[in-house]
Amino acid sequence: MSLDTTATSLVLQQAAAQVAGAQHLPPGTLYVVATPIGNLADLTLRAVHVLGQVDAVACEDTRLSGTLLQRLGLHRPLLALHEHNEEAAAAQVVQRLQRGERIAYVSDAGTPAVSDPGARLVAAVQAAGLRAVPVPGASSVVTALSVAGDARAAGFRFEGFLPPQAAARLARLAELAEERASVVLFEAPHRIEALAAALAEALPGRRLTVCRELTKQFEQVQPLDCDALPGWLAADADHRRGEFVLVLHGRSATRADEATGDAATVGARRLLHTLLAELPLKQAVALTAQATGLARNALYEQALAWRDAQAGDSGEPGDPAPTAPSASPAPTDWPADPRRVAAAAKPARRRGR
Q1: Does 141-248 match 3-138 at the fold level?
Q2: pLDDT tens track for 33-76
Q3: Short-list 325, 342, 250, 265, CA closest to 299
């Protein structure tokens, strides 16, 4: 390590100690530490501090993690823990934690246990009654989503690598075709052309954001349609290099979707209004939520709005008539009078017996 590098690492450690030094690091704890996905400057000061305080660092690749620690001016024992030995290595980590040691776990890049190893380790630690503390930082999933611009997406889902077999890959894409959420895909450079062909075949016209070499020197973010991806890759050999994160934009809502949603909401309100005539508010809301799958909070707010409107009912001309709901489609808000509706409807029911 050169003098300049040593000086830089010392300054970094001092800054980390100043910012995070007062934080308590309980012994017998696993620290799950996110590392940069390309740009070393994305490592947090808290991560530097934790890595400098633990008794050992378990890692996916000791060579890569050793280089990272060296650049930080840190020297810690390394323990290999990767997809081929995770179960056995996790048992060793648990034993060391039980002796009161502090152990950090890092994957090759990004946040552990998302696509990289780490989930089995965390599960083993927690099963032993020990703590696993996250030390957040870079994540290629969130990084890609932040520049995808899929404003209409209904949330997102992490899919990762699709099946390598052509038929299985196409079948999975067919299943994802109706997904309203953004879908995050990973792909390696040697398989990106096969994935591009599958996307063009299965989802032509669907919007896609291609992220290549995120946070690195030759980072590229390219929005395009799925059927344009093969041509974009073929246009420049550099487009086929590096690690890929692709965000498949969610399917846009159609008029049929909106109509279905409106019908479901109307049906839920009709049921809620009927139940309120016979049951206490909380019970009516709970039964409606259970029957329709709609959010209990939204149903509760609707019931309260009806009750509040009824409390302020002045009986002026133009007020909703206190009649029971008809079979016709419900308006945006039902008449705010479920109790009075029940009272008016009961004589009619007795006459019908």
Answers
A1: no
A2: 999 999 999 999 999 999 999 999 999 999 999 999 999 999 99
A3: 265
Architecture of the CATH domain 141-248: 2-Layer Sandwich (3.30)
Task: Give 27's contacts (C-beta < 8 A, 6+ positions apart).
Answer: 100, 101, 102
Could you tell me which of 60, 116, 128 has the C-alpha nearest to residue 91? 128
CA 20 from centroid of its chain's CA atoms? 27
CB 322 within 8 A of CB 341: yes
Distance (Å, whole) CA 327 – CA 339: 19
Nearest CA to 120 among 142, 161, 88, 74?
88
In terms of Cα–Cα distance, which of 182, 143, 147 is closest to 34?
A: 143
Distance CA 29, CA 45 (A): 19
Indicate the domain borders of the chain: 3-138, 141-248, 255-313+321-351
| Cα–Cα distance for residue pair 106/33, rounded to 1 Å | 5
pLDDT (tens digit, 9 = 90+) per residue, 337-351? 333 333 333 433 333
Angle, vertex CA 350, rays to CA 348 and CA 351, nearest 5: 65
Beta-bridge partner residues of 82: none
Which residues lie across from 24 on neighbouring strands?
A: none
CATH number of the structural domain 3-138? 3.40.1010.10
Q: Which two tokens stand for residue 156?
A: 């997102």
